[in-house]
Design a protein that fits this description.
Blueprint: E1 10-14, H1 20-29, E2 33-37, H2 41-44, E3 63-66, H3 71-79, E4 93-96, H4 102-114, E5 118-121, E6 124-125, H5 128-132, E7 137-141, H6 144-154, E8 160-165, H7 169-197, H8 202-210, H9 217-221, H10 223-228, H11 237-253, H12 259-276, H13 284-291, H14 308-311
Parallel strand pairs: 1-2, 1-3, 3-4, 4-5, 7-8
Antiparallel strand pairs: 6-7
Length: 312
């Protein structure tokens, strides 16, 4: 439903992939004036708004939001010859939810500040299905006054948004988040195999867990993958290893011991070594079953990820 209170600023949107498309779709549905750029324009056209030919065509928008694949795409769309900051006209605020290195983020922040543009790092928690269901959440760092401007818009993208401080602190918080993602995923694999080995059907145990105080949005939306052994990637094992290593490197710099995170990182490395580098990290359950002396089999049972009902 359109919200007339969200018409105070115009938005430029860069990136309509698995995450970016449903995020932009939610803003548009809320009544925000959104113009879009995507490297492959045809993927953005179903949004039903204006699709421009270059990121620089969004420079006259009040706020520009980027969610692209990597450092190269991020730097090109913002600082390249046809980037958002390539000309004399610039947006007031630049928001980024891409998974990029601290170096790329620092470079864009410095360039934005030099042009009087406020930059907000805004990592998102949740996959594309969670975004569609309104269950994703965002952490934001950068100038507080810029955050106050964009908060009502960010609230449309999921279940909540948190201000985490200045600079790139939101990306540090996202690393911590993804450490917990890895640790919980391994714990979930262990306890599911533990109960299955003892005779509890896998889907029944997961149903019980998710109805208990220990259930969560994450444990619920991993149920289909764990029951059906569907490792179609929402976040690959290699990507999770990268997250863990970035966090552990930062922890060493901060002199913070992280023994459980270190152990989990090694288990994820074993998963990759067993041929699941490009699989979803839910494949941890297969590694755990193998270590427990049996070959796990998919269950032919209809289960929910807990998100569809929320989306409807």
């Amino acid at each position: 439903m359109a919200n007339d209170n969200l018409k105070a600023h115009t938005f430029g949107w860069i990136g309509t992939g698995k995450m970016g498309y449903p995020m932009a779709e939610r803003l548009i549905a809320a009544g925000v004036d959104v113009t879009v750029y995507n490297r492959t324009a045809a993927k953005a056209e179903p949004l039903g708004v204006t699709v421009v030919g270059a990121p620089s065509d969004l420079a006259d928008r009040d706020i520009v939001y980027t969610i692209v694949t990597d450092d190269t795409a991020f730097l090109e769309t913002v600082l390249g010859p046809n980037g958002v900051l390539s000309g004399d006209t610039t947006p007031k605020i630049l928001i980024d939810s891409s998974t990029v290195s601290p170096e790329a983020s620092d470079k864009v922040r410095a360039a934005a500040n030099a042009k009087g543009v406020q930059f907000l790092a805004t990592p998102i928690s949740g996959n594309g299905n969670a975004v569609k269901a309104g269950k994703a959440s965002l952490g934001v760092s950068g100038p507080r006054d810029a955050y106050d401007v964009v908060e009502p818009y960010l609230e449309q993208l999921g279940r909540g948004v948190s201000y985490l401080g200045e600079g790139d602190l939101a990306r540090l918080a996202k690393l911590a988040h993804n450490v917990m993602l890895g640790v919980v995923a391994q714990c979930l694999a262990e306890i599911t195999v533990f109960t299955e080995r003892g005779g509890v059907e896998r889907h029944a145990f997961l149903d019980y867990l998710n109805k208990s105080a220990m259930g969560s949005i994450f444990t619920a939306y991993k149920v289909p993958a764990l029951v059906h052994l569907d490792y179609t990637a929402t976040h690959t094992s290699k990507m999770l290893r990268k997250d863990m290593e970035l966090a552990l490197n930062a922890a060493r710099d901060l002199e913070v011991p992280m023994p459980i995170a270190n152990m989990t990182r090694d288990i994820i490395q074993s998963l990759i070594g067993n041929g699941h580098g490009d699989s979803d990290f839910a494949a941890l359950i297969e590694l755990q079953a193998k270590a427990s002396g049996y070959e796990i089999q998919p269950e032919d049972v209809e289960v929910s990820d807990g998100l569809q009902a929320a989306a409807e």
